[in-house]
């Protein structure tokens, strides 16, 4: 890498070999973004070509209108022509001594087809939603693809979410089939996932459960309702015709957190999402024939969907998925996996980087890491120290570091510098992906000046992979994304600014969403969970800075009974784990007499947040109970 002032550029050698190494692509794409995306769409397989590339009836839009597609044909069938025996997927189990599993494109193709046939026999049809609650095992990828093969809409629920969180999502999707596993390994222990699934399907429409045998743990098995995955596919045919999907038909629903308590089901389309997944993966990770790509995100999140499933497969690439915890059995595990497979592209979250930084340089220095060519970061702002550490200790100062900004809603990466072009600047994600038009607007709706912070928005024609709706909640879709700046501008809910080079720096969310270790959680979701506790009359949750996790939630609760602070903390933590899952566990729970409120009774979370920073609290005279702030200050001291 070449350093010029604060900016880093790929060296000549890297540049020369990179798939995209000429800035001209940006100009060409901006001149006619629709034509640009249309050109890319031609490189995937369509059963029938579209009639119109882009249609905009604000706030609604469509891409590749009239086209018929099944994304699994590009991800699997087409790869059989030249890459039949190429390794598609490598699965690394958590236990060090256990054998990895390797699937060629042909293996994957056959298994997906078999499962697709089995799902059909179970009654699944085009348009049906199918829930997936699975650990990181090959079968989760196979399940997603099998759904796509028959036109069923998959809704993956993160395996570490609680049964209650699973239930809420299954209720919303009205899925009749759930695919899960008996259990999986986490830090050497078996987690009984099936038990969670059994609980999670209560009061839902789920009639059948497909259970992958993974951990061999004992589970409750209900004949006629539960089916072993391995038995189901055993005698199925290797061929299942790919359902003809309309370009705009939904491919999947993935739930994410918004500013309220209820998770939102982001709906992604078959055509647009597919095109974007393929080309963002190809160009941003510079995927070439011999590369081995490893994105560490769990498939329960959008990063897992786009870069541990669709993106690499649509490029006929080889990729790794890992079942376990990154630092188990020791903090060298990730480096060991990089060396073991000769990973060329490594994509992870700043939280993980900060965690490894804390463990110390001896771990990365024990390993060669010389196969690495590109590093990626995603999910939260990466601070300068973590950037430098990652760049130096993992990438050995030779790998471009792509800081990639995107959201569950955008379906794929939309802001980052391309590895063969650059420039890279710590704490700046970079520039827009070719063919995507961003603006940063101030309160008046005008473009911000250099360095001025404002709202990050996307302008038409957006990107083909942008969400098409919130499942069964059209009002929320309009309100969240298309009302803040009018119905022709997509509102990201992120604050951002630009530097003189045009590089975009993401400052963070401007709504009540926090990123806890890169996981997206709404403070409202936590508040709804806490409010279910019968002794608690009021509560407020805010995100505060954390050295490793970026942000963590802290809760303030007002109790109507005489409970000790210790007891209430324990109960609130239990409540949140039950309703959402351990990832949302608050760092602290403060028992207070009163919460700061405006005269109209609105809880002033902004003030609570400021109590954790060095910021001035400002004028408290608008509060109906300024004394509450003093009381809380004493508790925090
Ligand atoms: C944040 C994750 C800074 C941002 C793919 C966004 C980032 C939210 C970055 C979406 C980045 C994502 N730098 N912040 N490179 N990438 N974010 O839906 O606030 O889990 O709105 O999607 O993560 O989170 P989500």
From TrEMBL:
Listed Gene3D superfamilies: 3.30.300.30, N-terminal domain of ligase-like (3.40.50.12780)
Keyword line: Acetylation, ATP-binding, Ligase, Nucleotide-binding
Official protein name in the record: Acetate--CoA ligase
GO molecular function annotations of the record: acetate-CoA ligase activity; AMP binding; ATP binding
GO biological process, one term: acetyl-CoA biosynthetic process from acetate
EC primary class: ligase
Known EC number: 6.2.1.1
Keyword Coiled coil recorded: no
Classification via PROSITE patterns: AMP_BINDING
Native source organism of the sequence: Candidatus Nealsonbacteria bacterium RIFCSPHIGHO2_01_FULL_38_55
Recorded family membership: Belongs to the ATP-dependent AMP-binding enzyme family.
UniProt entry tagged with the keyword Ion transport: no
Top-level division of the source organism's lineage: Bacteria
UniProt domain AMP-binding enzyme C-terminal: residue ranges: 525-602
Pfam families reported in the protein's UniProt record: ACAS_N, AMP-binding, AMP-binding_C
Chain ranges of the Acetyl-coenzyme A synthetase N-terminal domain: 23-74
Domain AMP-dependent synthetase/ligase: 77-461
């Amino acid at each position: 890498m070449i350093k010029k002032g604060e900016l880093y550029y790929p060296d000549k050698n890297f540049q020369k070999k990179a798939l995209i190494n000429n800035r001209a692509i940006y100009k060409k794409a901006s001149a006619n973004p629709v034509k640009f995306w249309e050109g890319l769409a031609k490189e995937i397989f369509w059963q029938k070509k579209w009639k119109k590339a882009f249609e905009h009836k604000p706030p609604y839009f469509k891409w590749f209108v009239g086209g018929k597609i099944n994304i699994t044909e590009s991800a699997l069938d087409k790869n059989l022509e030249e890459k039949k025996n190429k390794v598609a997927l490598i699965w690394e189990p958590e236990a060090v001594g256990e054998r990895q599993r390797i699937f060629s494109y042909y293996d994957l193709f056959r298994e997906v087809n078999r499962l697709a046939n089995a799902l059909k026999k179970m009654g699944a049809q085009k348009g049906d939603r199918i829930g997936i609650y699975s650990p990181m095992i090959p079968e989760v990828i196979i399940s997603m693809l099998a759904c796509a093969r028959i036109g069923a809409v998959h809704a993956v629920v993160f395996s570490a979410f609680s049964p209650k969180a699973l239930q809420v999502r299954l209720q919303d999707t009205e899925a009749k089939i759930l695919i899960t596993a008996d259990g999986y390994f986490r830090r050497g222990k078996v987690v009984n996932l099936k038990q969670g699934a059994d609980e999670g399907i209560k009061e839902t429409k789920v009639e059948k459960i497909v259970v992958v045998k993974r951990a061999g743990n004992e589970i409750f098995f209900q004949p006629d309702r539960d089916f072993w995955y391995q038995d189901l596919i055993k005698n199925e045919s290797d061929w299942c015709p790919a359902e003809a999907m309309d370009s705009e038909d939904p491919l999947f629903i993935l739930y994410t957190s918004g500013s309220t308590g209820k998770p939102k089901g982001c709906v992604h389309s078959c055509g647009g999402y597919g095109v974007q997944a393929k080309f963002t993966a190809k160009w941003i990770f510079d995927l070439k024939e011999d590369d081995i790509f490893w994105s560490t995100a769990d498939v329960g999140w959008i990063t897992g969907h786009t870069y541990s499933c669709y993106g690499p497969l649509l490029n006929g690439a080889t990729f790794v998925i890992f079942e376990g915890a990154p630092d188990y059995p020791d903090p060298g595990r990730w480096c060991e996996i990089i060396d073991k497979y000769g990973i060329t592209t490594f994509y992870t979250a700043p939280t993980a980087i900060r965690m490894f930084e804390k463990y110390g340089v001896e771990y990365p220095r024990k390993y060669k890491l010389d196969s690495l060519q590109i590093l990626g970061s995603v999910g939260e702002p990466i601070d300068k120290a973590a950037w430098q550490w990652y760049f130096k200790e993992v990438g050995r100062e030779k790998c471009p570091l792509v800081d990639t900004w995107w959201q569950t809603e955008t379906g794929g990466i939309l802001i980052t510098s391309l590895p063969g072009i650059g420039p890279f600047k710590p704490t700046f994600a970079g520039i827009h992906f070719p063919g995507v038009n961003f603006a940063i607007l101030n309160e008046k709706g005008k473009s911000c000046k250099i360095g001025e912070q404002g709202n990050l928005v996307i302008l038409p024609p957006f990107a083909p992979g942008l969400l098409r709706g919130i499942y069964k909640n059209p009002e929320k879709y309009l309100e969240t994304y298309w009302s803040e700046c009018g119905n022709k501008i997509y509102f990201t809910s992120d604050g951002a600014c630009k530097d003189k080079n045009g590089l975009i720096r993401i400052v963070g969310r401007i709504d009540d969403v926090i990123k806890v270790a890169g996981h997206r959680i709404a403070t409202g979701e936590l508040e709804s969970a806490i409010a279910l506790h019968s002794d608690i009359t009021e509560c407020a949750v805010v995100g505060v800075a954390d050295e490793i996790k970026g942000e963590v939630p802290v809760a303030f609760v007002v109790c109507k009974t005489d409970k000790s602070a210790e007891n209430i903390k324990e109960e609130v933590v239990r409540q949140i784990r039950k309703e959402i899952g351990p990832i949302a566990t608050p760092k602290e729970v403060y028992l207070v007499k009163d919460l700061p409120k405006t005269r109209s009774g609105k809880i002033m979370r902004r003030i609570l947040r400021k109590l954790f920073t060095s910021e001035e609290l400002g004028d408290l005279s608008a509060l109906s109970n300024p004394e509450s702030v003093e009381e809380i200050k004493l508790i925090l001291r």
